[in-house]
Amino acid sequence: SFALSYESPFTYYLGILITSIITALLIYSALLAHTAERVHILKFSEQKFNAYFNKISYSLYLFHWPLFVLAKQSLPIFASVLIAIIASYFLALFATYIWEPAWQGKLNIHWLKTMNQKKYLLSSSIGVFLIIVIVTLSKAPWLSSMQEALLRNSLMQSKDAANNIIVKAEEQEHDAEERAFQESIKGATIYGDSVMVGPRDYLQEIIPDSDVDAEGYRTLNEVYDLIKEKEDANDLREFVIIAMGTNSSFQDNKNADAQNAEEIIAKLPAKHRLIFITPYDGRGDASWGSWQYRDYLLTLEDKYDFVTVGDWFDVAQKNPQFYEGTDLVHFYGNQDAYEAYGKLILDTIERAKERPAKPE
């Protein structure tokens, strides 16, 4: 799981097969060890260790993963693994030698035996569990911070779309001079995925006449249709900015995002300038689709005069503090990251102004 990326086709072609073979070999080895123990081939110390490990192994299996996931939220990987192993071991000892015997009435403690015989242990455990569930449900938010941000920004985008319709209706009433002034405001149409959901409001404030459309789980193959809708509504701004790629995918063993980007470049209306912002996924490596897509984007400025690329990947790698305590993809609520992200886009717009628009 650490060596293979879930975005790589190799994971599905061979990774699962290799994992299955290794699992089968381990099961076979365990059966051999069990057989050797039964016929007394193993030394006494080995038999004793096997018997001890057999007792606690299932509890270790149950505890290790949730403990690792919890520890990983605020600690480095190595420390998380170490804590998960140690804590799992002690919890397994508790479950094996105290909790389970208490349930079975085998523990030589008078009050526990009494509770077990009168079924108090079962009813009290159920009661404690229900209290925990009720308290958790009463305090837990109905939406996660990401879901809340997605919902809020979806509503804001609907509001902005309605405002655009109102503004267009008002513009039709202006005289020729005023309309000419409005047309001189060129602005930017910006498309992003869940990474942009967090800084959406901030970008809307700092980028003049911007229309920011960010949505979770969005992929690049959706963007051309969105551009076409804006074009048909005469609402596509001069700068078309695309900041996506963390949901990169493969098609026929090729990075589909590169193919989709070429389609957008080819079909972009004349007199517009196209800007791509490279994605960053701190969990990946050079085999990941998002990293390969970034490498592809960096070649575009030399190929197309009207395309400019802002390298957020480079900024993010140089500023790991932007992603402390996150999933290494999003940076919700980090104002320093918002400002760096906004500055990169503004700087890229300034560079794009020095390059020609797409010719007719």
Summarize, please:
The chain is of the alpha/beta class and 360 residues long. Helix content is 62%, strand content 8%.
Query: Which range does the strand content fall in?
Result: 5-15%
CATH class of the largest domain: Alpha Beta
Q: Number of domains in the coordinates? A: 2
The strand count comes to: 7
Structural class of the helix and strand makeup?
alpha/beta
Write down the oligomeric state.
single chain
- Gross morphology: elongated
Strand adjacency order, main sheet: 2-1-3-6-7
CATH superfamily of the largest domain: SGNH hydrolase
The parts where pLDDT drops under 50 for at least 5 residues are 180-185
CATH architecture of the largest domain: 3-Layer(aba) Sandwich
* Main sheet: strands, sense, barrel: 5 strands, parallel
CATH topology of the largest domain: Rossmann fold
Q: How many angstroms does the end-to-end distance come to?
A: 49 Å
Question: What would the average pLDDT be, to the nearest integer?
Answer: 80
Q: Helical amount among residues, as a percent range?
A: 55-70%
Order of helices and strands: HHHHHHHEHHEHEEEHEHHEHH
Task: Please tell me how large the radius of gyration is.
Answer: 29 Å
Number of helices: 15
Topology:
Elements: H1 9-38, H2 44-72, H3 77-104, H4 110-117, H5 120-139, H6 145-171, H7 176-184, E1 188-192, H8 194-197, H9 200-206, E2 210-214, H10 223-232, E3 239-243, E4 250-251, E5 254-255, H11 256-267, E6 273-277, H12 289-297, H13 300-303, E7 307-310, H14 312-318, H15 335-353
Parallel strand pairs: 1-2, 1-3, 3-6, 6-7
Antiparallel strand pairs: 4-5
Helix pairs in contact: 2-3
